[in-house]
Automatic annotation (TrEMBL):
It comes from the Bacteria. Residues 172-306 form the GGDEF domain. It is an enzyme of class 2 (transferase). SUPFAM superfamilies: Nucleotide cyclase, PYP-like sensor domain (PAS domain). Pfam families: GGDEF. GO terms for molecular function: diguanylate cyclase activity. This is diguanylate cyclase. Coiled coil: none annotated. Residues 6-52 form the PAS domain. Its EC number is 2.7.7.65.
Length: 306
């Protein structure tokens, strides 16, 4: 194959490549540019070859890129290339406005020119974005109790942890209430599990309606709910628990057509005192207070001093 023929064949092969390829001289003149690179830049390759990088980018705001890619980003990248000792490691991700992503690299050639080539990484980017989307959904799901739509135990733990840190820094008081619906088993047995589910939803929504915007209600077990009350000392939390207990007792919960029932629930109340240094220790103390309330009889409130 003659040299000329070989060159033509190489150019044809490069033009068929899905990778974007360009060669830039030491004086920053584009000496070769394949079709994919031209498409990436939004131009015909004939109009790119012979241009200096500077000339190309001086009009980056104008017609050269036809708003297809971020010219400023590319310009900064190219201009930082000269004097860079480790060009192989210099990589730029270009997010084109047509939704195609390219990863562009620059390699020095023995003739002192630079090879610039870009790979289409759209498929990887799409996968990454789908994964991030799924992760977001997963995070959301793990933060919310699917049935009652109040916070999950996991979210409660995270918020409690935040409150403990606030307390340690600013000594801001906060309290935790845990409540459990009593004799719930009989509701399921008499009216069915679906009726039990509706009661749980209504119960949580009643409690939720009593809270401040900064408070959090979480479902931490089947019929057990926690109320996290930032900036609230034991006295205020006990008052709220008593009000909640009375509200629940007065409420008629619908379990079947034309059939309402009354509920009772007991409440354990604790204020963070700095001694229960962990989230689990605080939940444990509130559960101890709840057990004590249950021992005292249906619909009791026990506030546990330190
Ligand atoms: N319908 C329904 N029932 C549930 C759900 N989660 C837990 N339960 C039921 O709630 C009952 C709770 O059990 P316990 O708290 O031990 O029983 P209890 O009858 O309320 O007893 P006390 O709390 O001691 O008064 C069990 O029968 C569970 O099957 C749920 O999501 N939906």
């Amino acid at each position: 194959m003659s040299e000329n023929h070989l060159e033509m064949t190489l150019i044809e092969a490069l033009n068929k490549s899905e990778d974007a390829v360009a060669i830039v001289s030491q004086q920053n003149v584009i000496t070769f540019c394949n079709d994919t690179m031209a498409t990436l830049l939004g131009k015909h390759n004939k109009s790119l070859i012979g241009n200096t990088i500077e000339a190309l980018f001086s009009s980056a705001q104008g017609s050269v890129f036809e708003d297809r890619i971020d010219g400023d980003e590319l310009a900064d990248w190219f201009l930082s290339l000269k004097g860079n000792q480790d060009l192989g490691a210099t990589e730029l991700e270009i997010d084109t406005l047509t939704g195609v992503f390219f990863s562009v690299k620059c390699l020095p050639l023995s003739s002192h020119a630079y090879l610039i080539y870009g790979k289409d990484i759209t498929a990887i980017k799409v996968l990454e974005s789908e994964r991030a989307h799924l992760q977001n959904e997963l995070d959301f799901v793990s933060q919310i109790d699917p049935m009652t739509r109040v916070a999950s135990r996991r979210q409660l733990s995270e918020k409690l942890d935040g409150q403990i840190k606030l307390y340690e820094r600013y000594r801001v008081p906060f309290s935790l209430i845990i409540t459990d619906i009593e004799h719930f088993r009989t509701i399921n047995e008499q009216y069915g599990y679906a009726a039990g589910d509706r009661v749980l939803v209504e119960f949580s929504s009643l409690l939720n309606g009593m809270l401040r915007e900064t408070d959090i209600i979480a479902r931490i077990n089947g019929t057990e709910f926690a109320l996290l009350l930032p900036n609230t000392a034991l006295e205020g939390a006990s008052l709220l628990a008593t009000r909640a207990k009375n509200l629940i007792v007065q409420q008629a919960f619908e379990v079947a057509c034309d059939k309402n029932i009354a509920l009772t629930s007991s409440f354990g109340v604790v204020e963070f005192c700095g001694l229960q240094s962990s989230v689990e220790a605080m939940i444990h103390r509130a559960e101890e207070a709840l057990s004590e309330a249950k021992r005292q009889g249906r619909g009791s409130v026990v506030a546990m001093e330190q």
